[in-house]
Amino acid sequence: MGEAPASLIDNLQGGYTNVFDLKSKGKQTATVIGSKTYVIGWGIDEVETFGVRAFDKCTNEWVIPTVLGTKPKPFKGHLAMLLCQDRILVVKENSTFDDCIWFLEVNTEYIRHQKKKLGTEVVAWSRGVIGDAEKPIVISGPSGVGKGTLINKLMKDFPTMFGFSVSHTTRAPREGEKNHVHYHFTERSVMEQEIKDGKFLEFASVHGNLYGTSTEAVDAVADAGKRCILDIDVQGARCMRDSHLEAIFIFVCPPSFEELEKRLRARGTEMEEQIQKRLRNARTELEKGREPGLFDHMLVNDDFNACYESLKKLLGLDEAVNGTSCHSSSEVGYLPLVCSASASDEKILIVSETVELEKPSQNRIVLDMSSIKGGAPARTRGLNMYFA
Question: Which residues contact 305 (CB under 8 A, 6 or more apart)?
């Protein structure tokens, strides 16, 4: 964290705050956006009624919206501030720096898409992350094209730069498999509900069990300072593209269908029936892979070394040195009781209070949002926070 110039502090202190503490109904905030007032926080019991609701002035009724994204853990104290008429900044009291900044999206592009899709009122949570991260890489291609070999080579040459997300599944663990390592093993009812809640980028039913990639699993790789690689079929890539995931989509194809068949047969590990099934699937994937707007890049794996060099070049790794490619996404520190917040342009001044030896003192922290990117259903990254 750095120091803020005095002129910035003067401008921020002349800003505004729209925070309310409704004593009769517990710790809550009310933020007006158009004809709706969004209330965030606890009810009187501080157990059952934590969440989000909206009062529609046009209908004079309360609305309980569908809440998507990864929700913050329940909190009692917070500030709320309207940003850009499409999201609410929420600053949690008594939280660590990597968990104190959240955004409740109410009218972003993602929210508008979900409202149209679900036909109901929708909001979504997105955790604010200090620092940035490289976009995930989605690699698709038919079986036998060599995409797995390309990914393994990339992981071997840049072991600290890349990481795989851990998928979810409803099947039982096999011998030697560990929960949260090989898969996130979960109950079908739980995963189905999380799919409805918009927590999955893609999912599929295989032999009666659900498999899928959650937004949280992809974000966890970036939070660890690595760039996430996803080996996904074309249908999964389409789902990820529709989910508004900011990623680089790469399709690996063979020089010809005849060459692909030759490679599959050269494996010598499958019966003819299995080979024919893979070839049918490959033909379908090759057709879908060429659909406009799905993939950003096409790589032809004719010569492996040349294809690998092309992959490194489009990822900006042709001259890279082995190391991490992502900025740290977390800050060591603790945000005590939040007293107030005010805004100037894209910077927020947060005033927090600590009590040391029974003598209160104040800290002033500037939250710079000029470079934020991403958002629900994933993280909002690119925040900068420094002491004023």
Answer: none
Distance CA 173, CA 169 (A): 9
By annotation, the residues acting in catalysis are 174, 267, 278
φ/ψ region of 106 (left if φ > 0, alpha if ψ in -120 to 50, else beta) reads: alpha
Question: Residue 376, SS3?
Answer: coil
Question: Of 83, 102, 105, which Cα lies nearest the Cα of 92?
Answer: 102
**Nearest to 286, CA basis, from 204, 278, 201:** 278
- The Cβ of residue 85 has, within 10 Å, a number of other Cβ atoms equal to 9
267/146 Cα distance (integer angstroms): 12
pLDDT, tens digit (0-9, with 9 covering 90-100), for 322-380: 544 444 444 446 666 666 666 666 888 887 776 554 555 667 888 888 889 889 989 99
The count of other CB atoms within 10 Å of the CB of residue 145 is 26
Distance separating alpha carbons of residues 292 and 201, to the nearest angstrom: 20
Q: What confidence tens digit (pLDDT) does each residue in 46-63 have?
A: 444 568 999 999 999 999
The answer to whether 88 and 40 have CB atoms below 8 angstroms apart is yes
Decide: 54 and 62 in contact? Cβ < 8 Å. Answer: yes
Write down the residue that tokens 């899928």 correspond to: 212
